Amino acid sequence: MAHGIESIDFNGLPALRLQAGGASAIVSLFGGQVLSWTPRGGKEWLYLSETAKFDRSTPIRGGVPVCFPQFADLGKLPKHGFVRTVDWMLADRRVDKDFALIQLRLEDSAETRALWNHPFGIELTISIEDNRLDLEFEVDNRGTDVLSFTGALHTYLRVREAEEARLEGLYGFTYRDSANGNAIKRETGDALMVDAEVDRVYRQVNRPLLLRDGSRTLGINTEGFPDVVVWNPWETRCAALADMPDNGFRRMLCVEAAAADTPITVAAGEQWWGRQTLIAL
């Protein structure tokens, strides 16, 4: 496979294709969103809905949407914030035969201040190499007041069959069960397996996770983000999503680096960063 970074048209949207070390990725400038990642010698690890919309009328269903400055409906802003439906700027690119890296940037504007009246700058650095995808998200508080936000890297992982996938590493952690009245529970299983709707915010997760999908295994590491969100809409909720096929829930599991339970606060003039790393094992 060749190595490089090229501008492409992806379903009518401006995007970038990264290739290096036998790996590849596609990133949409609309939403600053990774849409595809294939490690060296492997298969696609990100789920992108077959019925996703690319007409800018709605966020793209799949890949790794960036949720900021609000996670879900935990506030007065549009669900998951507003950065999923605006164009990001390409600020930097670097490439050699072993790795490819891009840095996307978004700053406050009259449109964002009408929704959320705070000066800010955010950057998403995306890099691939061999069997690894790194996403680093940085928030710069450019105002004179403390900045408070929730958010996530809303990662849709592609699985062969959701009911057979095993997510390991969450044993013992407390979670808020959004699918069951926001009840607070403790994970007691060695592995999380999906056989119904799952919508959980695991708190203060401080160890790596493993997703076992048949013969494939994916390591999931986070830094900076305090929480991990696990989501699968299952049959009924999936059928209600216009931009997802009725059986789409069988092919995906969201495992998200998140700050969803307690807001992140950033002092005036300071920065915060969080990272999610996916490693195909």
From TrEMBL:
GO CC terms of this entry: cytoplasm
UniProt name for this protein: Putative glucose-6-phosphate 1-epimerase
Molecular function in Gene Ontology: carbohydrate binding; glucose-6-phosphate 1-epimerase activity
InterPro entries: Aldose_1/G6P_1-epimerase (IPR008183), G6P_1-epimerase (IPR025532), Gal_mutarotase_sf_dom (IPR011013), GH-type_carb-bd (IPR014718)
Family membership: Belongs to the glucose-6-phosphate 1-epimerase family.
Active-site residue numbers: 154, 256
Native source species: Parazoarcus communis SWub3 = DSM 12120
Listed GO biological process terms: carbohydrate metabolic process
Top enzyme category: isomerase
Statement: the UniProt record of this protein carries the keyword Isomerase: yes
Regions crossing the membrane: none
Catalytic activity: alpha-D-glucose 6-phosphate = beta-D-glucose 6-phosphate
PANTHER family in alphabetical order: APOSPORY-ASSOCIATED PROTEIN C-RELATED (PTHR11122), GLUCOSE-6-PHOSPHATE 1-EPIMERASE (PTHR11122:SF13)
Taxon lineage: Bacteria, Pseudomonadati, Pseudomonadota, Betaproteobacteria, Rhodocyclales
Pfam families per record: Aldose_epim
The EC number(s) this enzyme carries: 5.1.3.15
UniProt keyword Cell cycle, yes or no: no
Source organism, top-level taxon: Bacteria
Keywords, sorted A to Z: Isomerase
